[in-house]
UniProtKB/TrEMBL annotation:
Record Pfam families: TB2_DP1_HVA22
Membrane topology: Multi-pass membrane protein
Protein name per Swiss-Prot or TrEMBL: Protein YOP1
Keyword Transmembrane helix set for record: yes
Source organism of the structure: Basidiobolus meristosporus CBS 931.73
GO BP of this protein: endoplasmic reticulum tubular network organization
Family: Belongs to the DP1 family.
UniProt KW Transmembrane helix keyword: yes
GO CC annotation terms, alphabetical: endoplasmic reticulum tubular network; membrane
Length: 146
């Protein structure tokens, strides 16, 4: 059981990440725009898959042959004979993103604003804590000198 998990994990990592990363590099280096488009679609699909996988690994890890099915899915995504990532991107992901693009952009903008505001607020609190600690330290030093 452990050996099967290790083997499927290795195939998923090499087939789903390392090979596509190197193939993307080669397409960039050789300026092959058609391949770049294919690999960019793959990375978008892989991003969606990774988000789904995060939940699936928690919820359905117990399902028989789960890891083997995941490995086969990743191979289906990358193999040029199947063009799984291109199919998923063109059939599901692209239409969904186009349909919800305005809402997604709005959510991203809102989150960026919230992160910025929270960071500024936390920074102010941090400065206040440091100022208070410095004043207390100076007061202690002065008390010890007196």
């Amino acid at each position: 059981m452990v050996l099967i998990y290790v083997l499927t994990k290795a195939v998923c990592t090499v087939g789903g990440l390392l090979y596509p990363a190197y193939a993307s590099f080669k397409a960039l280096e050789e300026r092959r725009s058609e391949e770049l488009l294919t690999w960019l679609m793959f990375w978008i699909v892989m991003g969606v898959f990774t988000a789904v996988e995060f939940v699936a690994d928690i919820v359905v890890f117990w399902f028989p042959f789960y890891y083997q099915l995941k490995m086969l899915f990743i191979l289906w995504l990358i193999l040029p004979q199947t063009q799984g990532s291109t199919y998923l991107y063109n059939t599901f992901i692209h239409p969904t993103l186009v349909r919800h693009e305005t809402e997604i952009d709005g959510m991203i903008e809102k989150v960026q604003t919230e992160v910025k505001n929270t960071s500024v607020e936390l920074g102010k609190r941090g400065v206040e804590v440091l100022q208070k600690a410095a004043i207390e330290s100076i007061a202690k030093v002065q008390a010890n000198i007196s």
